[in-house]
Amino acid sequence: MKLARMLVLTAGVLLAISGAVPLMKRLLADTKPAVQLNVKNAQPREVEDVTQNSVLRDYTLAWQAIGTSLANNTLQPLNENFSGFALDKLTQRVKDQKQQGITTKIIDRGHNVEAIFYSPDGSAIELKDTASIETQVLDGGTVIHSDQAQIHYYAIMTGAEDRWKVRVLESAQQ
Amino acid sequence: MRKIIFVSLVIAVCWFAADCAHAAELNIPKDAVAGQPLTINGSGTLYLIGPGQVIKREFKSGSVEIKGEELRSAGRWIAAVHGDGNQSQVFWVKAGKPENLNFLARPSRVPVAKPNVISGVTFVFDKYQNMVVDPIPVNFNLSVGGSSNSKNVTSRDGIAWTNSNSAPKAGAAQFVASVGDTQVHRVVQQVASDPCNLRMHISGRTGNRIIVETDPIRDCSGNPVPDGTIVTFIQTDNTGKSTVDARIKKDTARAELPAADNGTITVAAGVVLGNELHVGGK
């Protein structure tokens, strides 16, 4: 009787672990990346505190969305955080990935971001980002590429209905 | 002697291994440009994973040619070959020559003769909407009524911007940003500024009412203040205050006020005060 109880308990624990592991993995994948934003050198307009906080929040969310979208080939997170050319390109990337059976896992080690331009009317801001990113490209379950690198990005964000959205996101060789 | 042969052999083996590894690298051109074709040699399946697209191809007769219109995204790409030997490599694709401009001209309506009130911001892109981060000379030209103001600005990190004064003459100013043959036009409506020398006079009397009318209302540069602008007439006398908000129509504004025995009429448009009139009196 005691043995049967132990077996049931063990089975229950194993079942809980088997459910919790993928959930934890998913949660870790959806973790917000660490982003540091410096606005001291923005030209020609000084960035207001409220704008700085909003841009920091929304740029962080945008990178979280990239991670989720490329890992799961879903478009919804992109639509919420991107617009214009950046949305077009990332949408195409996700569609191509889906069509080719590819997924990309991004482990985001953090971003060092500097605002370099803030438009006179306050409608657009350009960011220069040095990102530490680990990338793993998978075809089905097979890893076809893996690397870890510091990548430089230019991002242009514009004010949208209730948030700042990334309109241009471009990696550049330094 | 044996030791020397052993060491030599180890060096030779390492050299060969290094050579083999080098030979296995993907030879991707270092100066790839968006919109230009690319040839990659290898065998098996080729994956090209770019910022805005993924290309998957089988090598045929040892090479894959990527057409110019297929290589659209600038930035960091990954090339991976999955076959007999699995290899992958990061490579960079640069943006093509500037062919598209995004031009923000602000504001769309501006008073005349104000310093640094018009701003123009240009984002420089290539044919495939990749931002061109290399410095590019951008020309800004603001013209209205035959006079024009031109400035050359070199873009920095994909952006060129300028500030400009509004012209002394009212009208639709053409604001043009251009790079090479690419031009983008915007219209900035320059309107008369605040009225200058606002003056009124009594233009008539009907029964127990008087009619006050302004002289033609113009700004300090001589531009007529637009029709529809509100002008406020206030009459104060011992019975109280009468206020009339009248709109400018054909350069002037007029109002009917009760004829007072001893009153003062003032006129104002926005923050500008005009002359005072004393009416009646004993």
Brief description of this entry?
The complex is a heterodimer of chains A (174) and B (282). Chain A is an alpha/beta fold and 174 residues long.
**Could you please say which CATH topology of the largest domain in chain A applies here?**
Nuclear Transport Factor 2, Chain: A
Beta strand % of chain B: over 45%
Please indicate the count of domains of chain A. Answer: 2
Ends distance of chain A = 69 Å
| Rg measurement of chain A, Å | 20 Å
Tally the helices of chain A: 4
Oligomer: heterodimer
Order of helices and strands of chain A: HEEHHHEEEE
Domain count of chain B, please report it: 3
Structure annotation, total helices of chain B: 1
Strand order of the largest sheet of chain B: 1-7-6-3-4
Uncertain stretches of chain B? 18-24
Q: What would you call the shape of chain B?
A: rod-shaped
Q: Element order, helices and strands of chain B?
A: HEEEEEEEEEEEEEEEEEEEEEEEE
The 3D shape of chain A can be described as: elongated
Helix content of chain B: under 10%
Average pLDDT across residues of chain A?
90
Supply database-style keywords.
heterodimer, A: 174 residues, Nuclear Transport Factor 2, Chain: A, 2 domains, 6-stranded mixed sheet, 6 strands, B: 282 residues, mainly beta, Immunoglobulin-like, 3 domains, 1 helix
Q: How would you describe what is shown here?
A:
The complex is a heterodimer of chains A (174) and B (282). With 174 residues, chain A is α/β, with parallel strands linked by helices. Chain A has two domains: 1-30; 34-172, Nuclear Transport Factor 2, Chain: A (Roll). Helix content of chain A is 43%, strand content 38%. Chain A has four helices and six strands. Chain A has helices at residues 2-29, 49-72, 76-81, 84-100; strands at 35-38, 43-44, 102-118, 124-139, 142-159, 164-172. In chain A, strands 1, 2, 3, 4, 5 and 6 form a six-stranded mixed β-sheet that branches. Chain A is elongated, with a radius of gyration of 20 Å. The N and C termini of chain A lie far apart (69 Å). Chain B has a five-stranded mixed β-sheet with strand order 1-7-6-3-4, with no helix packed on it. A five-stranded mixed β-sheet of chain B has the order 9-15-14-11-12, with no helix packed on it. In chain B, strands 21-20-23-24 form a four-stranded antiparallel β-sheet, with no helix packed on it. Chain B starts with a helix and ends with a strand. Chain A binds chain B through residues 44, 85, 88-90, 92-93, 96-97, 99-100, 102, 104, 116-117, 119-121, 123-124, 126, 128, 135, 137, 139, 142, 144-147, 149, 151, 154, 156, 168-173, and chain B through 47, 49-56, 73-76, 78, 80, 82, 86, 88, 90, 92, 94-95, 104, 106-107, 119, 121, 123, 125, 129-131, 133, 157-159, 161, 163.
